[in-house]
Amino acid sequence: MFKKILIANRGEIALRVIRTCREMGIQTVAVYSTADSESLHVKFADEAVCIGRPASSDSYLNIPNIMAAIEITNADAVHPGYGFLAENAKFAEICRQSKIKFIGPTAEMINAMGDKITAKETMIKAGVPVVPGGEGLLESVEQAKSLAKQIGYPVILKATAGGGGKGMRIVWEECEMEKAYDTAKMEAGASFKNDGIYMEKFVEEPRHIEIQIVGDQYGNVSHLSERDCSIQRRHQKLVEESPSPFMTDELRQKMGDAAKKAAEAIGYESVGTIEFLVDKHRNFYFMEMNTRIQVEHCVTEEVINFDLIKEQIGVAAGEKVSGKDYLPEMCAIECRINAEDPYNDFRPSPGKITNLHIPGGHGVRVDSHVYAGYTISPYYDSMIGKLITVARTRKEAIDTMYRALSEYVIEGVKTTIPFHLQLMKNEDFISGDFNTKFMDSFIMKP
User: What CATH number was assigned to the domain covering residues 4-103?
Assistant: First the structure.
């Protein structure tokens, strides 16, 4: 087992990793930018190293500075968390060459699933259902129009190196294609330094359902059931839950088997998530694989009583996974609490938290790195924390969530708490009658 792990991240995920490491008896090193000098992950780690100025490119994405921090602290492994360098194949390879264990998959695995075209081809060979679409990248708008006629409108253009909705455009008819094509390529190039785009059939009224998996160095793979992430805005998740209210035992079995096939196809090692689109007829299609721990991993932890970070560290140290598949024993919901104004198009609201009260009680978990006096920085994402409730039934989890949200006091910045309070009383959400287009018609009440 590792003696010392450097956490190449910040905020709540860095704190989350520190907690598990402490339980495992592993020393931790926090890295931080000058903007994060007062962050809790810096205070709770055994050691801390400043790696640069506030901008991510100068700190959390600065590989030479992070490698220097690893060297001076004698860390023998690095945990990348999520975001930043978590799916950076170059960083994973530099760690390997430096004989530092990257707690995640190899560079080859990241590359195999990081490029969406390559990933799709891999899934087809593995027998995993994929959304109908073209083979390879689009070379011109004329090719895009021709392919769209073959597939049938609506279609969706996607950046091959994309994520978070960047470089993605839905095209409903041919007259929209040229503008959508140009915009998608421009946005992809600006966001990822790779303007390659491809086309798929647009699945209408889809659910976004993902399967958590874990694989070891010996070819064993387990799936840990599903999470429903359909409540999202501009392809950014707002709420996640497990089990999905749309799920059946038969569908869970099929999707779980497909997710394991996907992981086995690349000999996947570490925790990861296979994301699927599921249409209203419960046909499912591979969308992408996230080769890292995810923001919403806590939902899975609560429904199967499983520490995914501990499992991830164990796998990296050479431990075997059970090969057993897990079914949800409870119901859990996660609300992302962000410093955003839901009454003003979810505009970011950075600033100092002047007053804070964290909810508690039976069935309530809060993963957060903030405190009264903490400043939400404009340099990074606006997440304040994650509020998770768990209960025997979905209705009880929703009721507990509403109660916990009502107790959650954050003053000094605008937050998404008012949105979540209204969502928990929304009849369509309560009944489970929603898809990824839910937010298109959701209107905040005064």
Answer: 3.40.50.20
